[in-house]
Amino acid sequence: MHVKAKTHFFKSLDLTEVMVPADDTPGAFTATKLVCSLGPSSHNVEVLEEMLRAGMVAARIDLTWGGLDFHRATLAALNAAMANTKKLCAVVLSSLGREVMVRRQCVIGDDGWPAHPDPFNVTAGQTLMITTRQDVEASPTVLPVTYPLLHNMVKEGDTIYIGRYLVCGSDSASLYLTVLQVEGQDIICEAQNSAVMDGLMTVFHMERSADSLLNLQNNLPLFSEYDRQAIAALGAEFEIDYVNLAYTRTREDVREARLFLDSLGMTHTKILAKVETRQALLNFRGILAAADGIVMSRGNIGLDVAPEKMALVQKQLISHCNLLGKPVLITRVVDSMVSNPRPTRAEATDIANAVLDGVDGILLGAETLRGEYPVHCVETISQICRVAEGVFDYSSHYDSLMAAAQELNAAVTYAAAAEPQLGSTAQLAINGNGRSSSGALSGKNVAFAAGTSPGDTEEGIAEEAEASDSGSYNEIHAMATSGSYGQLSSAYDGYQELAAFTKFGGAGAQSVYSMAHKGSTGSMVYAAAGEQLPYLSKLESLASSAVRTAGNTKADLIVVYTATGRTAQLVAKYRPPMPILTLVVPRLINDGIRWRLEGKATARACQLTRGLLPMLATPGPNGDAVLEAAVVAAARAGLVAPRHHVVVLQQVHDDFCVK
């Protein structure tokens, strides 16, 4: 498949228009999402309230550093700030995962945050030792690390990067080492530059294959033991909307995380795959098909990829995510604002170019975690994003997705015809509850077991899957470890990536030439082999039509009714220039023990998708009453005014309509 790079056409080349001051109205709508890492600079209620008003829509809690009690207090403060400001904020929990760190003694400050009071000074040309021995204490010349097998991975000539937590590259706390020799568990190195080793130090093995595709990987597990304990504890006390998987390497990592979260009862928690290494780039399509969103860790990728390739990598990752309609975030945008109130020219341009590339959001790290200007940082980035959105070429983006649809449709049809059929239509057909006549899991349940959530199919099917008891952790785990599932998975894996790119959320383990749709009887009906397969599902066709209608009528607002968030995300995929007011109607759910009202989690999950403005709707006597209340709320927010046009996408009985 050929994906064209985005081109940016400016309607006017008059520089006097460019120099007109931007709209700096407090609380003005910004389509690009800002996710802020919370730490010592941003863990009290007052600062969090200001950050929410400035444009923060999601808060990140990073388990890499900080104790569980500190994170509990921060989340409690965030809940209080949301209540005071009446603003929704998603919670993203980042795992420690496969991170390798320098082992040093730390002290706990009065605020509960750990710190290293005595920095180490290293000068260029100095010889120092990295060791995996556990009985050695850190010093300016000896750095013990947490990974016990690092000495087996390196050899003479390798490059090892050591940098402060949330710093990668040019900071004074960045140290590049050349390996001189390996003696048992000790790695003798020479410093390439001078640095100040301050705070938590992380280790990245750049090694000898910097000019080739593959490199060595450590064998650390996806989740550390602390990750598992912290996710379980915080998930039981607070509402966690996303888990951000550090050092995701393959789609199997996403599947493992999904099974673990389901075992904790965190079935509504979505998964962001953090892409940090060349191995993740090589496996990116599989990762994207399985995950709910992508975080591009530009700091670590910048260490593992040649500098001249970084811009191309970023543009390709964003383009792939845009095609699939899944949110993509980038990191490391305004490092200088950790200690300065104004970004550099390069940083401001970098943010604007990312918006023009189609990124959904910006993930801030040290800038808001320990920076001196967390609120001003959020305000500044929001302003830059808003101005860039004003010149985004929306029509070309829409046309490029339509062109890609035709090309992908041809590719999938060709793949379906070329591969041997895995079973007859009768063997693949399933009944309404997702089981074959033999009682085995198939169809949507197979897709779930293969690492995609039940929500990967169309909205109505997703709701059936949620109501079914066949997606339990034990059943899926047993299926995933059985021989029959292994054969099925390997046979269908070749289809999964193409299928994922032809249907929002992926088609899971279904055969692409047996794409299912619901018949009038409620059973699943499959297309015959070789039949033309549509790229756009019925729901996505309506979503794209709503965007086209809004453009033709010059509407100022799109209103989307949704129960799972999928409809709104499909509309956002086409990047309309106007806000998408996402009306989440709460639903009563019976889990077999009690009734509960659901809706807040869906609204918060929409916070990472560009252009969406989620709003919890108050159930009314009819849909028109809910719509009227939503338009009034939009008018109060300054999104619409009298005589403005509004396009509405809603479900009427069993069908969706655009009006």
UniProtKB/TrEMBL annotation:
<dbReference type="InterPro" id="IPR015813">
    <property type="entry name" value="Pyrv/PenolPyrv_kinase-like_dom"/>
</dbReference>
<keyword id="KW-0670">Pyruvate</keyword>
<dbReference type="InterPro" id="IPR036918">
    <property type="entry name" value="Pyrv_Knase_C_sf"/>
</dbReference>
<protein>
    <recommendedName>
        <fullName>Pyruvate kinase</fullName>
        <ecNumber>2.7.1.40</ecNumber>
    </recommendedName>
</protein>
<keyword id="KW-0547">Nucleotide-binding</keyword>
<dbReference type="InterPro" id="IPR040442">
    <property type="entry name" value="Pyrv_kinase-like_dom_sf"/>
</dbReference>
<dbReference type="Pfam" id="PF02887">
    <property type="entry name" value="PK_C"/>
</dbReference>
<comment type="pathway">
    <text>Carbohydrate degradation; glycolysis; pyruvate from D-glyceraldehyde 3-phosphate: step 5/5.</text>
</comment>
<keyword id="KW-0808">Transferase</keyword>
<keyword id="KW-0479">Metal-binding</keyword>
<feature type="domain" description="Pyruvate kinase C-terminal">
    <location>
        <begin position="540"/>
        <end position="652"/>
    </location>
</feature>
<dbReference type="GO" id="GO:0005524">
    <property type="term" value="F:ATP binding"/>
</dbReference>
<dbReference type="InterPro" id="IPR015806">
    <property type="entry name" value="Pyrv_Knase_insert_dom_sf"/>
</dbReference>
<dbReference type="GO" id="GO:0004743">
    <property type="term" value="F:pyruvate kinase activity"/>
</dbReference>
<dbReference type="GO" id="GO:0016301">
    <property type="term" value="F:kinase activity"/>
</dbReference>
<keyword id="KW-0324">Glycolysis</keyword>
<dbReference type="Pfam" id="PF00224">
    <property type="entry name" value="PK"/>
</dbReference>
<dbReference type="InterPro" id="IPR015795">
    <property type="entry name" value="Pyrv_Knase_C"/>
</dbReference>
<keyword id="KW-0418">Kinase</keyword>
<comment type="similarity">
    <text>Belongs to the pyruvate kinase family.</text>
</comment>
<dbReference type="InterPro" id="IPR015793">
    <property type="entry name" value="Pyrv_Knase_brl"/>
</dbReference>
<dbReference type="InterPro" id="IPR011037">
    <property type="entry name" value="Pyrv_Knase-like_insert_dom_sf"/>
</dbReference>
<feature type="domain" description="Pyruvate kinase barrel">
    <location>
        <begin position="31"/>
        <end position="378"/>
    </location>
</feature>
<dbReference type="InterPro" id="IPR001697">
    <property type="entry name" value="Pyr_Knase"/>
</dbReference>
<dbReference type="GO" id="GO:0030955">
    <property type="term" value="F:potassium ion binding"/>
</dbReference>
<keyword id="KW-0067">ATP-binding</keyword>
<keyword id="KW-0460">Magnesium</keyword>
<dbReference type="GO" id="GO:0000287">
    <property type="term" value="F:magnesium ion binding"/>
</dbReference>
